[in-house]
Amino acid sequence: MKHYLYMVVLVMCQLVWGQIYDPPPINPDPFATGGHSYTPRRSVRPAAKVADDDVAEEIAPTTAPVVKDRISKPLVPREKTRVAILGYHNFSTTRPVSEMLMRTSELREQMEFIRRAGLTVISMPEFLEWLHGDRRLPEECVLITLDDGWRSVYTDAYPIFREYGYPFHLFLYTRYLTGRGDSMSPAMIREMMDNGATIGSHSSTHPYPSTWKKHEKEGEEAYAAFIDKEIGASRTGLEKLFGAVNTYCYPGGYNDEAMVSRMSGYGYVAAFTVIPHKVTCKTDPMRLDRYMVFGTDPSIFRRAMDFSTTVGGRSIAGAKPGNLAPGTPPPPFPVSPRSGDTVPCQLPTISAQLSNIADLDLSSVRMSVSGFGRVPAKMDINSRIIQWTSPCRIYMPAISVHISWKTLDGARHSAAWSFNVDRAVTVEQ
After folding, report:
1. CATH assignment of 335-422?
2. DSSP secondary-structure letter at 297?
3. Which pLDDT does position 271 carry in this prediction?
4. Residues 85, 141: Cα–Cα separation, whole Å
5. What is the CATH number of domain 20-308?
6. Cβ neighbour number for residue 309 with a 10 Å cutoff
7. Residue 412's beta-bridge partner residues?
8. I want to staple 302 with a disulfide (CB 3.0 to 4.6 A). Which of 38, 43, 371, 380 is the partner?
9. How many CA atoms lie within 13 A of 112 on its CB side?
10. CA quadruple 141, 263, 250, 387: dihedral positive or negative?
């Protein structure tokens, strides 16, 4: 009898404890009109350097997902749905973080944020059906993609996705499927396909933009043959290993009309870039935007999860990224690109020269860029130039830049300007 009473009391305590300590939902951004704000619980710091052949410890995936019904929110007309497509690469619990390598714990925090925010994670087949008009989805959706085929996707990310019950899409390039070193093996990929993963092509050898341009200069016929080998043959090779493939991801986001015009002929129904925009049903299926989530910059994930319309990091009703309010005064200092200029989509640097600002508190200077939020701009103390280089091509038609600073008397100041982007022009590398 005593043992029975003890068990009853224990169960009741566990229930009460769980209710008391159940983590509260994340509050919306105070500046947002309808978005979700993500703030990492800890700063991302590089760990001690380890041997290059070190890989993350394998974790047995759980079989009890937290989210059992992914599409539980009301369906809306197609034109009202927006999809934030996330792009990841590599993960580790020990290696120093970089743009391409994220701390595994940070990925878990981001998936937990998605769960708490109540966002719907959709699969690639569901996304394609919606994109091509064959289904409806909730208003705010997330699609998870992972590029290249790093082994850590299997050892680190896959268990987390299974735990949360989230589908995910792998963009693989066929040369990197050996199972040696840091690459996944076909067996690992097949196991993930049995548990929520789908796959697409990421080319045969992952050529960098300079390689594409080099082959383009060899003439139309030679370039077409190179495209056939990289984009067409990669799909054929993947289908022999894994079955049907109908999506493609441009390495580095680089694409041109010669590639795009041949996509449907290879059997692709969608192709993806690296441009940080929400996707709507009006987005070009062969140039679909993605938020590439870098290990060194969690603000990109925050921007992806904000479904409000924002400018300079704050929500402004009726505003669009890149557009400034009519009558916005020009900045009181030289800037580059200059206000109203049109630049190639592969933009080297955004900068502002602040040497004529009297009593400037150098530590207070901040830069925000539409589509990216606050960016990790560098301030040169001697020249008083603040500058930032975009980590990816910018295909948005217009970009606004916002600079804020304080003077030594504590007064706050700000300035903004905008420039245009020519999507058809790239800079030679």
Report:
1. 2.60.40.1220
2. B
3. 96
4. 8
5. 3.20.20.370
6. 17
7. 406
8. 38
9. 13
10. negative
